[in-house]
Amino acid sequence: MKKETRREFLVNLIMGGGILSAFVLFIFNIAKYIYPKLGAPTFRKVVIAKADEIELGQVKEVRFGDQILYLANINGKYKVFSSICTHLGCRVRWEENNQRFFCPCHHAVFDKDGKVLSGPPPRPLDEFKVDVEGRFVYMWVEEKKSWGII
Ligand code: FES
Which residue ranges run through the membrane (predicted)? Predict the structure, then answer.
């Protein structure tokens, strides 16, 4: 039997380590694909506006990161709606004159409360949980959890 040289041993060790690493990464990525989120979602609240910034009955466009949202003061109760249409994801816009949200893609109409008045959307606009504390309006957003590495 031929004795393994030091060079052959090191080459085999490096190749074996590489193959093992590739296999572990492959399994890890499959697990990430199958279970993209870890555990129950967690939420944090963020300031979205000052309470006195929006008058009774008014709807105002606000930005949160790269999202455009609508903050509404309906009968003294604050609501935050997504601007993503629940039909196919176009951006709805607030029409002050008509007091409605309108989606230009398939002419959907939502009322001030985000409910569908006409058009193909299957459900109301997505709404964020809102709290008012002191002078500020807070919105609850889901924290993104991921596998952290790679
Ligand atoms: S995407 Fe808004 S109505 Fe179709």
Answer: 9-35
The response to whether residue 93 sits with its C-beta less than 6 Å from ligand 1 reads: no
Eight-state DSSP code of residue 52: G
In what helix (H) or strand (E) does residue 27 lie, and over which residues does it extend?
helix 6-34
pTM score: 0.71
Q: What is the pLDDT of residues 79-102, one digit of tens each?
A: 999 999 999 999 999 999 999 999
Of 143, 150, 115, which Cα lies nearest the Cα of 39?
Answer: 143
Contact 42, 145 (CB under 8 A): yes
| Ligand 1 neighbour 108 (Cβ under 6 A) | yes
Cα separation, 82 vs 106, in Å, equals: 18
Q: Could you give the CA distance from residue 125 to residue 110 in angstroms, rounded to a whole number?
A: 8
| pLDDT tens per residue across span 20-59 | 999 999 998 898 888 877 667 788 899 988 888 888 889 9
What are the strands, taking DSSP E only, across the chain? 42-50, 59-64, 67-74, 77-82, 93-95, 100-103, 108-110, 116-118, 127-128, 130-133, 136-143
13 C-alpha to ligand 1 centroid (Å): 58
